[in-house]
Request: fold
Amino acid sequence: MPEGPEIRQTADMLARALQHRDIEAFDLQHASLSQSSHAFEGHQVTSVDCRGKALLTQLSSGFTLYSHNQLYGVWKVTPRGKPLKTNRRLRLALHTQEHSAMLFSATDISLWKTDEIEEHPFLKRLGPDVLATNTDAELVLTRLLGKSCRNRQLSSLYLDQSFIAGLGNYLRSEILFFSGVNPADKPRNLNEAQVQALAKNTIKISQRSYRTSGVTLPKKYRPAIKKKSGRAYEQNRFAVFARAGKPCHFCATPVQKSIATSRRIYWCPQCQPRSE
DNA sequence: CTTTAAACCTGCTGGC
DNA sequence: TGCCAGCAGGTTTAAA
Reply:
């Protein structure tokens, strides 16, 4: 169940386990890989990167593995040979001397020649990755005010991967909230300060989520929580997302919930008034 | 051009 | 306990 920050952490995890290590064994379960042993046999993983929510595992064979987790795919890394308890369907496993990296459940998997990966139809349409080092607030601002974005509702724009890749449903609610803008507004109707805040927070909140493994609510608004999982943790990850009816941390007004672009969205009517 | 609705894939949860 | 409907942090497609 990943958005950009979670996918980037997965890429980091895979890189730690696989990068520059010999692939000693592999298991190609997914149909699209059945004739692809040559890409893995006797080779190494050169790098693991992500573009939005797509993972790109580059191999020394000159091929790059494209995989997209969608809602349900998941990568697991274990010490080599340690059995893993799961009912999920294994799609792909790469084993180094020390580790096993296994991809479960994902269906969107394909192998590309590295120099042709840009031809992938999904990658071709992506905007800049929100967590890429050269993506900054200025770039987001430029895109917000660009022709194809400025007249669209923020609620729609902030799920569109061609605007900024890696944004997703919880980041949408959180970024709009911290920017004090209403989901129904459009970039062209915001004032200067609002667009600037929005651009800045798009980067800031995404980076915070990456750094904290998915927590966008600043520490000072959260009770001390020991475990990085469980109900208390889940209920205090976000400022507004999944907090319908609960008091806004800034003004105590009940958080609103509705459906926008077929997905849940949350906002504070007091902190995020319409600007039109 | 922009928005909306439905469909698809798989996994998990909650209600009966 | 078992089954099923409904939902999920995603994406594509067609249609309005």
